[in-house]
Give the backbone structure.
Amino acid sequence: MPRPILATIHPAALRNNLQAVRKHAGDARVWAVVKANAYGHGIERVFGAMQAADGFALLDLAEAQRLRSLGWRGPILLLEGVFDARDLELCSRLGLWHTVHCEAQIDMLAAHKTHEPHRVFLKLNSGMNRLGLRPAQFRAAWARLDALPQVDEISLVTHFSDADGARGIAEQFAAFNAACGDLPGERSVCNSAALLRFGSDARVASDWVRAGIALYGSAPDFPAPSSAAWGLEPAMSLRARIIGTQTLQVGDCVGYGSTFVAERPMRIGVVACGYADGYPRHAPTGTPVLVDGVRSRLVGRISMDMLTVDLSDTPSAGLGSEVTLWGCSTKGARLPIDEVASSAQTVGYELMCALAARVPVVVDTEAADT
């Protein structure tokens, strides 16, 4: 019998989340961001539910090839552009759109021989200081691209550093508008957080929105509000089963380092999930779980292959009982991944992407596309 741990992908939730994104996007078109193998969900597993998007955005050429092999003929955008001049050959062959964020990428295009001019997204560094040309360089870069026969349409893009926080987007959005001015071309500025919080302004939603984490059911600005408040549903559930139980007396310890000490008699369940499965080792005692659909908590330190949970509120739980680490219990209860991530002082993005290759993954066939 296989080790009792399983991740389940929910196509119905993906479709719901895409629809929720569209409600916020208004007339803007939607990029479904599927970088990092669709945030750990698997490109092939999410593709059917996300075909209603207007395009896919990602980083890797190999992932772009996978989308084309699945039959996608619409736009695909390379969010970081090309890393080598030879990458442009594949962009030409696969019909990929790509970001240009530095002069070196313009140089590559200028030297590229192609019969089909490329659609590019010129990126402004509006204050995040990762990728992008500074405002003083931006118009000259646009003029260089516009003069190249290798370039067809030029779109304009930036990325907000604080769309999910108190600082917001006003300063960076103003910098973007000042740098772009009356330049022609479609605009794209919104990630999930900017879209949900500020996308009701059509100027912010602009022509394209880049929906990432929201598509997978996580709130980019958790805890205020939650994913449910945005109308989002968990697209991944991680469940395991209890493989052993222990009865503790006052003063008994649990796990490596004896970090948990029982203050009263209690039962604990040993669960077939650990940090080698992608569960965060630094998740502390108190991190929420669902035991047979009932909310409970972790106790003690996470091991490589096991973790331990409090069975005080589930006296009937025992060997084989289901423990939901995040997502949906088969009993119907939900545990948002954001709550688990917050307890572990990280973000839902990391938990999704960290799911280990050894964890079996299935698609919820009851809700999958037929």
About this structure: Residues 11-25 form the longest helix (15 residues). The two ends are 29 Å apart (CA to CA). DSSP finds twelve helices and 19 strands in the chain. Residues 149 and 318 are 68 Å apart (CA to CA).
